[in-house]
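Recall from the previous lesson that a structure prediction takes nothing but the amino acid sequence as input. Here we apply that procedure to Ribosome-binding factor A from Algoriphagus confluentis. The sequence below is the only information supplied.
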Amino acid sequence: MESQRQKKYAKLIQKELGEIFQKEARHLIGRTMVTVTRVEVSPDLGFAKVNLSFLLADKDQAFDLINDHKKEIRHHLGKRIGKSVRIIPELAFFPDDSASYAQHMDKIISGLNIPPAPEEEEEEED
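The prediction returns the following tokens.
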């Protein structure tokens, strides 16, 4: 279970990384929209697991670009939060597949052949 400190730190990192992907990292990712869906921080606050969701691009290519420029992204993060935290965490990026999984499940459910429920006759009260 995460402590309040970890949750607060994770929320700060999520917010700042979102802004970094919108502004400073535009030259890396181009038109790709990157959403930071979740951040988990280790108890010592030295490691952050970041889940990313991609829109308008090839997910694998964008993910590889971000992983290749991990140091630069961490540097931008350090500039933004360096005054308010002691440790700038090491970042590990992971793709967030929840949206594609939900889309897949929706497709499966819509493809099911579910017969309508039988109509029950109403009983008359005496």
